[in-house]
Amino acid sequence: MCLYRGRYDFSCNFLIYHFFPLSWFPFFLASLEILLMKTIRNSGPPALRMIEYLPQRRFSGYNARTMTTSRLTRIVFTLLFSTAVIPAQADENLLRNPGFEDAHGGRARFWDALPGSAGGTESTQDAFQGSRCLTFELGGPGKAGVFQTVKTAPGTLYRISARVKTKNLASSGLGAHIFIPGLNAISNDFSGTTSGWREVTLFVKTDADQTELAVGARVGADGGPAKGRAWFDDFAMARVEPAAMTSAAGRPYRSSFPWGLVVFGLAAAVLLALFARLSLKKRLHSKGPLLDLVLAGGLTLVYGFIAFWNLGSFDAPQTYYRAETKGEGFCVDLGERVPISKVNYFLALGAGSFDLDFSDDCDSWKGRQRIEQENVYSMIEWRTLAVGATARYIRVTSVKPGVMLGEIGAFRRDTGAPAAARGVLGAPGLIEPATDPSAVCDEPGRVPATPSYLNSMYFDETYHARAAYEYVLGRDSTETTHPPLGKLTIAAGVLAFGFHPFGWRFMGALFGVLMVPLMYAFGLSLFKKREYAFAGAFLFAFDFMHFVQTRISTIDVYGVFWIICMYCFMYRALKLDPFGRTPWKYFLFLLLSGLSFGLGAASKWIVLYGGIGLAVVLVIGFGYRLVIFAVEYVRSRLSARPEREIEDDDERPKRRLTPRRFALRLIFTPLTTAALSCVFFIVLPALIYFASYAPFLNVRGPQHPDKSAVALVEQEQKFMYDYHSKLQATHPYSSPWYEWPVMARPIWYYSGKPYVPDNFTSSISAFGNPAVWWPGSLAAAALALILAGLSLTVLGLLVARLANWIMARDNRGIRGLVARFLPRLSYWAFPGLFILAALAAQYLPWIVVPRKLTFIYHFFASVPFIVFCAVFVIKFLLEWRPKARRGLVIYLVVALALFLLFYPILSGWPVPTLFAQSTLKWLPGWVF
Predict the structure, then answer these.
(1) Exposure winner among 336, 605, 700, 864, fewest CB in 10 A?
(2) Cα dihedral sign for 855, 856, 857, 863?
(3) What integer pLDDT is reported at residue 884 of this predicted model?
(4) Which of 458, 309, 506, 464 is nearest to 763 (CA)?
């Protein structure tokens, strides 16, 4: 089922204005346009008749060029929509008894109570229209709801709406909302005391064979009970009429056009063209470091541009007022009587509430409403309070002290412009504030007209970005379920830029950009050729999860960054010979890998899973080096004449090993490696992990003088483990480990409702690029089969040659096998085994971890190795069939094209709902 959620606005103008700026043959196009428009006007479906109303001009000078541009775009969209748009017609209300006016036996006819529901009663008061409405009143935590089954047409888009009002409705989950029973299709929900009726809307498209649909109204939900009262009235369900899809003002909605995206697309196209020319016409591996700089640096700059564009606003309040006692307050003077439509306000750290009253003379007050921060974990965001009053003064009264009030901005009802505050006055009858209250109106330029992800927190930023700010302020952190280093890294951005969206997202985006050259360097070590290194970095750069997860201020990005670092350094170490004359290089890379492991573990515990993979590849890699060392020694002893040996990290010839020197290296090198590995991967990470708790100890230490620093940190670790292992919460967008590679259930981070116009959607969803995750998952299985076949082949040959040597005492077979197959084994088997081991270490632990609530973003740490699996198989195929090299370029183009196609629902850029739901929704579980 294809779901349409929220109130949106579809307009062809938006697409036409920006994507088709050039055309020719004006008179031919004019004739063709007239013919098409006449056909549409006479017999075209309603969806196509929208084309007729597209504007004829865009520029102030209406010349032949602009005329042909407009005509061409109208013709193109006419032809496209003639096959792509869903024909729709306006129908009457399909719901029976939509206003609950027809009651029988105390219940609204045609509406059935949901299982386990308290049902509803018909109210003769407070109806939105008519004499009755549906009322739910919950005296204690619970849920209540009704539903009605409606006959529908297959493959048809419907709009479902209702009016909702609440009073003292509190919910740990969903408030009052409409929904589709049996599906996670819900409208925006309301809770808290509301002075008037609000409209909720839900769009749904039936499946090709679906003939009926259940529609429901509900308060609370399973796992999220509610308490209080809610009213529902004026239900409606009808087919969508595309010709009527306009905003409330009657004008099509246009978001600001992202010219940065155009620049990014052009830069990416130039970079791809350069790569295609170099990879198809020249040998990349014959070039010097300059080509690495061009490919890796250019890709990093292109991705960095798109990563930081529209990352967040700089306009969050930086000064705050915090009440000390209940009953203290003040008045904000607007300078004149202002018709106020809404008040935008910003609540930061802490929990508490204020009452807002409005007055013309600072004597009689009216329209009291409450603004509240429910708890210390509530979202730090701009919120909108609907007012609908005319006043000069706004009185702010502390009801529950404790929350930081950043800024209050009133907006005029007549013009929509902000009403500038003239100052702060004392409020008669209220306690004088202990601190200066002028902070609530000293930054009027920072008050946005519309709250969004650009100026507010979303999803888990309420925990991690909040904790970062608490560290900056020297306070105790409210987020204690993860180690501190990731949140301290976020705090560095806050210190550098301030506590606003750009500041708390900067470090995550920066680390996401740095992952691109890191992946290039890692791929160059793995595959030895720049074309494959570029392919790996390119696929990872334009993976959806990488883009979304590094632009939200959570700690996952830091864990994944250090995971890539520690495996990259480990692979560099294992490519060196610890038995050579310069083992310090080997141990240096082990040290760097251990440092990365410690920094990652201090950021998030998922890095600890990677420690298992590091141990496995270290043992296998060192064992391989040990075997090579022994085989080369035996080979040199069996040869008729001395041979000069070559080390991987030192091209200088060396003397033939004596038995004594061989024995010493065979004993002391493994012991040294084991001892230093314990230091690098146990002692050093433990010290880093403990040091990351320094800000925590600075606060908690004085509070608990009877406990040592070690005991306090140990207590935190126990709490963290108990939290994750015993977590029994539910979430509508959670998904188990086996659904991640196929992307059955993305996680919906952000919805712009109710601040986007009707029929438009502004969403941020986290999932993978289908061109990366689906082929990459298949490539991982193919890689395992390739390695298994290669290993069996080498093993069979080795057994055969050993048997020949034992029987005939002829060592030429052994020497030939070593000379022929060991290099191939090193070229193919070891990189593939390394990639698979890293992937298994990051993915397989999720099968057995005690935590039950998991999300698709937990697969983020596996994505780099899914990418490398895909590149490994591509390399295998291209070296088998070199003429298929153009297929690599095509594959990268497809990955980039999908990134551009899905960019709106990865970035929150408003787009028409029809486009998001009919074009981008590929699987039933995808929600935008």
Answers:
(1) 336
(2) positive
(3) 76
(4) 458
Predicted local distance difference test score (pLDDT) of residue 826:
59
pLDDT of residue 796: 64
**pLDDT at position 281:** 53
DSSP state of 437: G
Residues in a beta bridge with 312: none
Instruction: Name the strand (E) or helix (H) holding 793.
Output: helix 770-808
Query: Which of 359, 436, 439, 433 lies closest to 398 in space, CA to CA?
Result: 433
Burial class (CB within 10 angstroms; exposed 0-12, middle 13-18, buried 19+) of 169: buried
Q: How many residues does the chain have?
A: 928
CA distance 677 to 858: 28
Tokens of 855: 């999300």
- If phi over 0 gives left and psi between -120 and 50 gives alpha, with beta otherwise, what is residue 220? left
Q: What is the pLDDT of residue 18?
A: 34
250 CB-contact burial (10 Å; exposed 0-12 / middle 13-18 / buried 19+): exposed
Positions of the chain with pLDDT under 50: 1-32, 34-90, 241-257, 284-286, 640-653
Q: What is the pLDDT of residue 73?
A: 45
Backbone angles phi, psi at 64, to 5 degrees: -65, -35
Alpha carbons 558 and 550: distance in angstroms, whole number: 9
List the end-to-end C-alpha distance of the chain, in Å, as a whole number. 13
84-102 in b/e form (b: 16+ CB < 10 A) is ebbebeeeeebbebbbbbe
pLDDT tens figures, 827-838: 667 888 899 999
Task: State the pLDDT at residue 278.
Answer: 58
Residue 622 confidence (pLDDT): 84
**Residue indicated by tokens 């360097």:** 521
State the pTM of this model. Answer: 0.69
- In sequence order, the 6+-apart residues with CB closer than 8 A to the CB of 619 are none
Which residues are registered as beta bridge partners of 407? 346
- Separation CA 475–CA 42 (nearest Å): 70
CA-based torsion, 64, 70, 74, 75: positive or negative: positive
